[in-house]
User: Fold these one by one.
Assistant:
Number 1:
Amino acid sequence: MTALSGTQTAILGAYAELIEELGSDDVSNRVIARRAGIAERTVFRNYPTRVDLLLATAAWIEATLFAREESHSIFDLPLAIREAMHRYDARPELAHVVAETAMRGMNGASPSPGRAHLEQLLDAEVPSLDPVQRRTVIAALSHLDSVGTWVTYRREFGMDSRDIADAAAWAAEAVLDSIRDRVTPRQAT
Amino acid sequence: MEEPVDTATAILASAAVLLRERTFDDISYRALADEVGISERTIYRQYPTRPHLLAALSNWIEQTCFPLPPFVTVSDFRAAVHERFRAFDASPAYAYVGARASAISPTLDAEPAYITRAIEAMLDVAAPTLNQRDRRRVAASLRYFSSSMFWARLRTGFDLDAAEICDAFDGAVDAVLARLPDAIWAKP
């Protein structure tokens, strides 16, 4: 995520607040400007279209409100996923906005923001996977480590936050089972 | 395609036509009204907000373009999902609408999708002694890996084509099912 100006942070924070109060469909730039304490044209100047504003807001929410503690091992990921599901559950409106934004199928909507980090961890601990195995593991873990999991488990199965966290972490453990016996011994440094 | 019978369906059919040349965000109610030949007001009456339109459009596309092949066994399930992913790849604009609609706050009914029930029914037959906790875990995983969200994520975030997405799906299903002991599978 590129560094934001103070004005941009104020705009994104105001928009996120208003989404929680009013829903994402009913918030005009005028209302955002008033909440952020700036002129309406400043909103336009920073985010010319509604989609620009939405992409920036979703990225900001992911990086702040939904930020997770960094995993130091790929095998720690189920813990991070479990915590993330509770965080989504505490902010349902924002969770839906982030989930929808990731599914727009366009440039700028990055559906797997944690992918590079997962690849780093996997390459350090389990470097012997062939490219297809590696891709399969990363794809499955990226998918599980996302707000889409929370949305789907809640909507399709009526699960509460505890059940969602359990089922998502369980699936991540299942994916990790396939590489548990492939870990490279630690090098003394 | 059959002739649409009512206004609500006519609006969806026209929205689907417009989707071939622009994204959902770029389909205004004004343009949609012109395409159908009705007033903008009539569209608002049917679909008071864009999320309502998105959800209804996704359901319509799902039924019209991506009917789910029926499945009973796990191997039929895999084949059905492969067929869907290939269909998504052939009509990405339509598939993205489905992925997006499945991510929004529910506006219409909160009914689970047909595929969710079909997966649960499949597990009941294939693994009748599976405990409830594991059944939910397995069903939720299979459902999520067979979703249009999985297809969309791998296409946009990983640049994969349908064949590669099917491989990733099979790998994920293998991993999930491998967590269950052999003894729970019903003997044919």
Number 2:
Amino acid sequence: MSPSNSPAISVRELRKGYPDKVLGTKWAVDGVTFEIAYGEIFAILGPNGAGKTTTVEILEGYRRRDSGEVKVLDMDPQALSSDELHWRNRIGIVLQSASDAGDLSVRETISHFAHYYTNPKSPEEVIDSVGLREKADAKIRTLSGGQRRRLDVALGIIGSPEILFLDEPTTGFDPEARRDFWELIRSLKALGTTIVLTTHYLDEAEALADRVAVIADGKIIEIATPSTLGKRNEAKARVAWLEDGSTQIIETEHPTQEVAKLAERFNGEVPELSVTRPSLEDIYLQMIGHS
Amino acid sequence: MKPSIIKVGLLRGRLEVLQFLRQRESVVFTLAFPVILLFIFGSVFKNTIAPGVSFSQYFVAGMIASGLVNTGFQQLAIFIPMERDMGTLKRLRGIPMSPISYFIGKAIVVLFAMIVQVALLIVIGRFFFGLHFPINTSLWLRFLLLLIVGSIASTILGIAFSSIPKSGRGASALVSPVVIVLQFISGVFFVFSDLPKWMQQFAALFPLKWLTQGMRSVFLPQSFAAKEPAHSWELGKMWLILLLWIIGGTIWAVRSFRWGDEK
């Protein structure tokens, strides 16, 4: 379906600034470069105000950039002209917040939006896949925050997009709703959808993303897989156990050896043994702290 | 199959009408309020302003003209900024929909509300306030043409004005006074020829004055033309000024329409 030699999205030296009383220009996005392959889930992770939404809204064609190159599905989102509808037919957008159409039902809204696309999914299937079956006939204004968000996702995927943009999709979800949502995203990936996800939840990036870009103050600090971010996989492991009434801790590059030695010494079960590596959160806080 | 601009526009129109009917604010504000006003003014002022013409007849004609302003200008200039605030417009900008389809949808909901509004006012005017239906086919045709041209002007100016309110909340506080002031100076609440000359001249710059005059030419006896300030219905001038507002409004709307707080 897609040319494997060109990426789904490529961004080079992207910059976008806003007038600022003190600085003259505040660079919301300051020289960002990355590529996203077809079929990949790419997470953009960063604190509030880091430039995540600005970056994504430039990719979605909502905002104009000041400089740099952007290609989404081989097209420049700010120079589409007559190709615009064709291009928009191939992407799905889930915006950060919307509170519209409160007087329509879930089914009415999803069915209506199916009409905009040349190759829509079945509205009933989409209602099921976002878990709104029980709310299908409910007015949108009666939905909870999480349900409302799932409707937004439904509207983002109804057109069978090749690329789906999700801007902080699970804000306000309870833990169970988030797990369900992650399953939905994985099932979209299984169908070959490229997914761009901004989030400030680390566990979300870790659970979903093939690669994570950490962004702070408009700059990319690192792009890596969740397990290698911040050289997390090479970081020393911490082995802890209980001995002589207190917790003993050592940091080591060879935790297996240490555990084997302990097992030998204790001749069996080691009391309260644990082996941990720094969590993504530890790494992340370190990274944005340094920026 | 590629969805056509017209087809999507019609689908949007259906959705807009559905939303209109389900929004208590819009039904009350746009449809019921003028009817209530009609009952109050029509019941209080029963005096005769010319042989065979009561103030209530005069007032109903003016309210029908205002109906065009309520359902087009007022409705759109208030609801479009609200849609901008709620993210509706941003969402629509992100899907494969031509902006033209959006405006077709708006035109349909205006047309729908206008027909309901005008029908209500005419029926109530006829049965409670002695309104006479147009007496011949050519007056009916003029009435139809006034509804069409007036609605077009009102819709376009509503879309153009929607760029002025900074927020959805502020929209109604900004738009309603404009409409009410125009109603006072354009021959709706007061007999136009009783107003001071300078006020008449100011009102003549805006479309509502011409719409009320046109509606009077349809619903009042032809002899009443002599009571107008110009001693005639000034129909040629009326069409010209409405046309100028349509052209000017289109240019204004195209230049000013905003989908969001885009930078």
